[in-house]
Specification:
63% helix; mainly alpha; 7 helices
Length: 193
Amino acid sequence: MTHADLYSAMLEVLKSYWRIRNITELVRATNILRPDLLIEYQGVHQVNGAPVFPSNEKLELSVDAICDHATKRMASDYFLILISKYEHFLSSRLKAAGQPGHGTLGQLQKAAEQKFGLSGDPVRLGSEIRERRNCIVHNNGKADLKYINSAKDAAAIGKGYVSLVAVGDTIVPPPDYLSFAADSLLKYSSSMP
């Protein structure tokens, strides 16, 4: 995977996020829903132990669920998609350089930093992004000491997107953080041959 491939992949993720986010807002704002209209669910397979999914529901309930997801959860989901593209890039660049291309995100970053001599602002921002990801995945979006330390290190260069927080503060990314994270990870990746 080249830097250009990573750029294209991240751009597609951001476009997808903003398309969905904006169409959701449009549907909510236009209020074109008919209260009696039902959505019929097809192709929903039951799995042992999973609650039974309804065969249909009012369109209004579905739109409410989509809007709720778009405002509360979708930025985190798309942030994790950006990270997966970045991890794939790191893995492929390390393999191309004759290094193992597997491990945690932190291990991949450390290996890339050692192999390609990366340092400075891209590394500090990459660490903040990694620790934010780790808190989202492993700590229910709450800051821990590792995140606090990386945020302190990156706050001055974080262009207002990185703030100082306390242990337990919510650090789920707001929508505009996605573009900042993509830009920071692209700068990190462009530091590699």
